[in-house]
């Protein structure tokens, strides 16, 4: 078969699920500041229905295909192939949809992406959480001087129409990976804190300029976010970023860590993690060493939980789980055996039950409390290789 014919049969076939909650979901991009010290995030939020709503592209721009090709394959020339295969996929949310007011204010989640990812690659879980009544801010990490952990990202300079792109950087030769990643994780956690400050500014009535000039006026968030109910969440490198953010910012009341890569966190910080963490692991990624680090946290806080979803791999907690086709499997690695919709349901329901418990939400998410103990179909407590052989 002609390899160039493969993507044509796959174009636009990403089928991301719609949120299962009671709210329709809107989405917009927010960039604040003209340097890498500013913030860049995709915002998911409950919105009002709107006829003829536009759905945003999953891969926002072709440059992100360049970054993915470089990160996953170390072959930038594959970018065009990726662009044909996934460049037309869309996210089932309303782009710049009208914000749905809520007098009590929605709880807020700051979301941190994994290594070599960017702000849109967790749209399935962010959409799901927003559909249940959360405002979710999915960061794209890019702080100076250390963080080159996104596949690629950019900022708009003060000079009109000019952009500067920031490429992914591997560990420099001769440098120990721990020290390189440790600096990055601290910067990433600071960025999560910075994002929370942005929402504090907005809700206090400060004028915040979104330099991307989207149709959604950020001032509509004022009075509609409950800053006493704030959590931090992330996947892989973003999972350990979320854990560290608990140390840096008392306003974060808990963290949800999806398949956290615990390696970059220094040992002296474990006693400093003050709040509960929900670790939702996949079956094929974690090592005994990594789980032992999670258990150090759970031994200090009885509300910290560790569960594993069976039949899943590391990418199962990203949108890549919903991509069909052999080509994509070849590019992004092996696939889990669990249906991705079921995996997403377990992940989101466990997260919702945990968030209700620790953000004091008056919802019915406690119906999924059993998942927090690893009780249910395709879920087990702790990690499979840590269970005794009976």
From TrEMBL:
EC category: hydrolase
Gene Ontology biological-process entries: lipid catabolic process
Active site, renumbered: 236 (nucleophile), 259 (charge relay system), 314 (charge relay system)
InterPro entries listed in its UniProt record: AB_hydrolase_fold, PAF_acetylhydro_eukaryote
Known EC number: 3.1.1.47
Protein's recorded name: 1-alkyl-2-acetylglycerophosphocholine esterase
Molecular function via GO: 1-alkyl-2-acetylglycerophosphocholine esterase activity
Superkingdom per UniProt: Eukaryota
Keywords associated with the record: Hydrolase, Lipid degradation, Lipid metabolism
